[in-house]
Amino acid sequence: MRRKVPAGKRFGSLVCLVPRGRRTKTDGTPCKNIAALCICDCGNLTAPDIYNLLAGKVNSCGCQQGGKPVHGHWGTRTYRIWASMKGRCLTPSAGGYSRYGAKGVTVCERWLTFENFLADMGEAPEGMSINRIGGATLYSPETCEWASNATQARDKKRTIWVDFAGEKMCLADAAIAAGLTYGNVFARYRRGLRGEELFASRHAYLGRNQFSD
């Protein structure tokens, strides 16, 4: 009887995603054993032999040495960002997958390895996280940058664009230019206010409306 590895079952640092199929020999003929596609706690994808997996002979992708990944970045902020990026794009059970992987956002092959990601992006600067420029559907050296939360908010497809003082700008920047908080301006926008009413001073706005921000 063919042995199976159920999806979601954990083997040490590995969690099985799906059986990938039979391995092939160098001459192209199929091997007896079947490989299972797994994701390691470090974020790497690997396909160990099912029988070795069930026998406890394999319990990580090979990244572990003395209990820690050999690259020495286990637990760092940059490593957590990378692992989270891979998880939400490649692992259906990961948080955020419905907004990323399920919508076609993926990771380039080079960045499936942390060392390559680190070489291309460097350490994550304080207060910044990874941003896909222009809402690209691929995480790669060509499409990503380290950016502040404000920059990322301006780069999202759902950013609200308005006219302020004859210039087109995102609502967040317009609120700053008007000397108002984003929360107040956004609340007015949702109420349907536009133009001068949207950016009127708080005093003038409250004088013309029976409700407050």
SSE inventory with pairings:
Layout: E1 10-11, E2 14-24, E3 30-40, E4 45-46, H1 50-54, E5 64-65, E6 68-69, H2 77-90, E7 106-107, H3 114-121, E8 129-132, E9 138-139, E10 144-147, H4 149-155, E11 161-164, E12 167-170, H5 171-177, H6 182-190, H7 195-199, H8 202-208
Parallel strand pairs: 7-9
Antiparallel strand pairs: 1-2, 2-3, 3-4, 5-6, 8-10, 11-12
Please tally the β strands and state the result: 12
Helix percent reads 25-40%
Name the shape in a single word: elongated
Report the span from N to C terminus: 68 Å
Q: Summarize the helix and strand pattern as letters.
A: EEEEHEEHEHEEEHEEHHHH
Q: pLDDT under 50 segments (min length 5)?
A: 204-213
Work out the count of structural domains: 3
- What structural class is derived from the secondary structure elements? alpha+beta
The biggest beta sheet reads:
4 strands, antiparallel
What share of the residues does DSSP label as strand, in percent?
15-25%
- The strand line-up of the biggest sheet is 1-2-3-4
Rg computed from alpha carbons, rounded to a whole number of angstroms: 24 Å
Q: Please identify the oligomeric state.
A: single chain
Continuous helix count: 8
- Average pLDDT across residues? 76
Question: Key terms for this structure?
Answer:
single chain; 213 residues; alpha+beta; 3 domains; four-stranded antiparallel β-sheet; two-stranded antiparallel ribbon; elongated; disordered C terminus
